[in-house]
Specification:
single chain, eight-stranded parallel β-barrel, binds iron/sulfur cluster
Length: about 425
């Protein structure tokens, strides 16, 4: 069930009311109209080639738009082919996505198109939850599912502190590099991003074996001084940066009036609000690529068009997005997990907020339920009744944590 705003519209439905179907939610008006007639698939190619940027000190140029693989890649082989044809040659997957099925879908594509493996900058990840000692065996299984003998980049998946990056796991990564099974190593993070980026930069980045970081980066967090300082430090250290969660979806409902006003403003200019949010991230030249989940050809088409279109946001448009971020502050969880966890004796508030984000912002209730189901049973019980007053007082985005945790207990369980 998708969440409703005060006017009773879901996020996707309100875009439909602007003339944009859910699948074309990121499309420019012209693209959205042609999508109905089937012409949209040809539209991005009229906008020039896919731009590329250098990925830190790897020496590799990657496309500014990357294909996030958290969807049914097995049954979307045509989309994978079209992504390559449109220049989206950076593919991101993980063991966690579909419990290996996302990797399997990419592997199926390479099995049928072995000549295209060299065209793809292939990324996979393993979560440290099952124990770091399991990495060597699980990594081999990932390679087998991907039907390849190497990945271009490997991430320790979704960390919220540097503790999983032990000397042992770094030594293993160095061995994999020497063996030619992994070209570059790094981590992805949704939580405590600024602290982790800064810590990685202080270590020396590539000099300490950390080549690339993928992190949550969007209009809600990009203007924060701590984030700007962390990004600058990574750039100085030579760490490649890949942005994710660039649409800035939150666990609560956005104020519809602010969102509608900004959406209408961008539509007059020829962008959707979603395309504008991508452009805002690309406005930082140090972000090498944006990893975007694009489970349909229409969304792929729209995002490719946004990437290839060279029109930058004006100062007024950037300001409008910043104002929108400020207006939506109460509906966005900024990932500063240590703040609310310290105020609740360690309850995983941030993880639950992510579950709500998938359920409400992305209309992917299954992903939210999976995240919730992975929490220990006693933790799930505590979330419905715990006292969150200290966490709410400490939360910089003033989120109604108690209410949201109760809703999660009811709708994600
Ligand atoms: S709930 Fe508040 S304190 Fe916790 S991660 Fe989200 S924004 Fe930060």
């Amino acid at each position: 069930m998708s969440a409703k705003n005060p006017q009773g519209q879901s996020r996707r439905n309100f875009l439909k009311t602007l003339g944009l179907g859910a699948a074309a939610a990121a499309a420019a008006p012209a693209l959205a109209m042609t999508a109905a007639t089937g012409e949209a698939l040809a539209a991005p190619t009229a906008l020039g080639p896919m731009p590329k940027r250098m990925l830190g000190k790897t020496g590799v140029e990657v496309p500014t738009l990357a294909l996030g693989g958290m969807f049914d890649t097995i049954n979307n082989q045509l989309l994978l082919r079209q992504a390559l044809n449109w220049g989206v040659t950076y593919w991101d997957t993980a063991e966690y996505y579909g419990r290996g099925q996302s990797e399997e879908g990419f592997g199926r594509f390479f099995a049928k198109n072995p000549d295209r493996r060299k065209d793809v900058f292939l990324v996979t990840k393993l979560t440290p939850r099952e124990g770091l000692d399991t990495f060597p065996d699980r990594f081999e299984k990932s390679l087998a599912r991907l039907n390849t003998n190497y990945v271009d980049l490997f991430f320790v998946h979704g960390i919220d502190s540097m503790s999983p990056l032990t000397p042992k796991i770094r030594a293993w990564a160095a061995d994999m590099k020497k063996a030619g099974k992994m070209r570059f190593f790094g981590f992805s993070t949704h939580s405590n991003m600024e602290d982790l980026l800064m810590a990685a930069a202080k270590e020396g980045g590539p000099a300490a074996g950390l080549d690339v970081i993928m992190f949550t980066y969007n209009i809600h967090v990009m203007h924060k001084p701590a984030m700007q300082a962390a990004v600058d430090a990574c750039v100085k250290a030579g760490i490649g940066l890949v942005a994710m969660k660039t649409q800035g979806m939150g666990p609560a409902i956005s104020p519809s009036e602010a969102e509608l006003k900004v959406a209408e403003q961008f539509l007059k200019r020829g962008f959707t609000e979603k395309q504008a949010k991508l452009k805002a991230v690309w406005g930082n030249p140090h972000i090498a690529s944006v990893c975007s989940q694009m489970p349909s050809l229409n969304i792929l088409s729209a995002n490719v068009a946004a990437a290839r279109d060279k029109t930058a946001l004006s100062a007024a448009e950037t300001s409008a997005l910043h104002d929108l971020a400020c207006a939506e502050t109460g509906g966005y969880c900024a990932g500063c997990a240590s703040i609310c966890q310290n105020a609740t004796s360690g309850l995983p508030v941030r993880e639950v907020m992510r579950g709500l984000m998938y359920q409400r912002g992305y209309s992917e209730p299954g992903l939210g339920q999976n995240l919730f189901a992975e929490l220990p049973a006693d933790t799930r019980q505590k979330l419905a009744t715990a006292d969150f007053s200290r966490a709410e007082a400490a939360c910089p985005h003033r989120l109604e944590i108690a209410k949201l945790m109760r809703e999660a207990s009811e709708t994600l369980a």
